[in-house]
Amino acid sequence: MSKEKPSIPKGTRDFGPAVVVKRNYIFGVIKRTFEKFGYLPLETPAMEQLSVLTGKYGDEGDQLIFKILNSGDFLSKTTAADIEQGSKQLTRKISEKALRYDLTVPFARFVVMNRNEISFPFKRYQIQPVWRADRPQRGRYREFYQCDADVVGTNSLLCEAEIVQMIDEVLSTLGMTDFTIKINHRGILAGIAEAIGEKGREGDICVAIDKLDKIGAEGVRKELQDRGIAEGAVDKLEPLYDLKGSNAEILDQLQTLLGSTEEGQRGLKDLREVWEYLDNLGSYALSTQNPSGKLRLQLDVTLARGLSYYTGCIFEVKVNNANMGSISGGGRYDNLTGMFGMPGVSGVGFSFGVDRIYDVLEELQLFPASSEVGTKVLIVQFDKEAERYALPLLQKLRDAGIASELYPEAAKLKKQMSYADQKKIPFVLLIGSEEMASGKLKLRDMQTGEQDELYIDDIIAQLKAEAK
RNA sequence: GUGGUUGUAGCUCAGUUGGUUAGAGCACCAGAUUGUGAUUCUGGGGGUCGUGGGUUCGAGACCCAUCUUCCACCCCA
Questions:
Q1: Which of A84, A143, A283, A423 is deepest in the core (most CB within 10 A)?
Q2: Nucleotide whose C1' lies closest to the alpha carbon of residue A441
């Protein structure tokens, strides 16, 4: 026997029964919503060919990919020269597979591999864990779940509008009442860059602006200057930070500022179209008021979401009454499958951060009691004879759809009762010699402590009524 | 990847400038109560002080390494 204390790898977690039940509740709401909007599930393997993943997330991303050591004698194909050339060269020789880093690249790979079977537009959702060799922090793990929904093969902005609808529906169903869906457009950002005289520099501008919440206008100014943006340009940029008014008013202000730029025009046209779709859908996101007064759907020109592959609309969701980063985000990308040699497929997608949503629901105490499944009734037994008597009743309860268990041995009553107590089983059924003689069983309500003597059919009826 | 931080019972934490046998609350187990949990009373079990080295007559405390936790960057969900 080893004395070694068991442990799990850094940045990973066990989920106990109570946590899994709550997580499944969140997954359930998300799945039902995705399916209601015509998205179908997809699953891909935990591991991909390393070559499929490398180069897709930038140099930094490549370092964060968990590589899988080749099985067998993984050194057999390497030479001393390989080792001398360093870890990059060596990695290719000793590792051919890697753990999935996100769900988007495997999705693109799937689309390309199955292009002839798929009918476009192709709408899929995917809820699976991904792995990153990142340094963990609160809300950041090395293994975590992503819930992606993407549609590829159409340019229609209806998809963008429906993303807003799905986000609104999922979060509302989960009981959140104060959240803001921020929306922006890469065209707007490009237009801004052009309008302030820094055409083509929107990448640098985005990275800096994205930090506005965190480091403030002064910090952003410094970061922009470090990145080589002219001071005059920054002066022109800053008024955009706090554009006032409704979304329509902001759009009008942007029209005068960016109307002359081609990219800005494209962004404004797209955004107006999204709003028109939402309007005609009768979107709750347009009509619902947040208690904090912040708009439910907010055009925010400072939303940048890194640089990555987004080319059109971009989204991000912030919960206003909880201390948490964005819990959902996404956007449109023009050329997702281009990396696998299939150009010209436009797509738009977004993702929920389940771990963060969990923390928010916990913080705001929004998990409903009904999300906690569990045994409804425990049959307590006194001896072998009572056990035999109880077995058909147990089956009858289960046939009636009532989650029930029989304590598997004739332990002390105290032990059996406290088992029910700790497992939060709301009812206990006591079967002893008196009960067997009369056929009337004692049903104890563990919350009130009240006990009734009832026939089994009445008990089933009562428990079923209770379940509603 | 850079800089910092944390680790003592199942959990939350005390533990004096290094000095007997490392404590508390909660939790757990048993009894008070052989047909009744959660409340009450009484008793009990449980710690190689994250791990490995080092300094010292003596280390939970000091030094080094390593793992882990959390935080700020980087980046991201």
A1: A283
A2: B35
Task: Report the nearest residue to nucleotide B34, CA vs C1'.
Answer: A412
CA of A352: nucleotide with nearest C1': B77
Paired strand residues for A49: A97
DSSP state of A426: S
Chain A, 86-115: which CBs lie within 7 Å of strand B? 102
Chain A 30-49 residues whose Cβ is under 7 Å from strand B:
none
Token digits of residue A197: 């005289």
C-alpha to C-alpha distance for A215 and A197, rounded to whole angstroms? 24
Query: CB of residue A435 closer than 7 A to nucleic acid strand B?
Result: yes
Q: Name, of A68-82, A165-179, A356-370, A423-437, the range with top average pLDDT.
A: A165-179
* DSSP, res A305: -
Tokens matching residue A72: 């067998």
Other C-beta atoms within 10 Å of A439: how many?
11
Q: Which of A 189-208 have CB under 7 A of nucleic chain B?
A: 207
> Could you check whether the bond before residue A392 is cis, i.e. omega within 30 degrees of 0?
no
Write down the residue that tokens 């029209």 correspond to. A255
pLDDT tens digits along A144-197:
999 999 999 999 999 999 999 999 999 999 999 999 999 999 999 999 989 988
CB A332, CB A313: distance < 8 Å:
yes
Residue A104 DSSP SS3? helix
The amino acid sitting at A297 is L
Distance CA A71, CA A368 (A): 46
Residues A369, A34: contact at Cβ < 8 Å?
Answer: no
Q: Alpha-carbon distance A18 to A467, whole Å?
A: 19
In contact, A308 and A117? CB cutoff 8 Å: no
Please give the C-alpha separations between residue A226 and each of A194, A205, A464, in angstroms, as whole numbers.
19, 11, 67
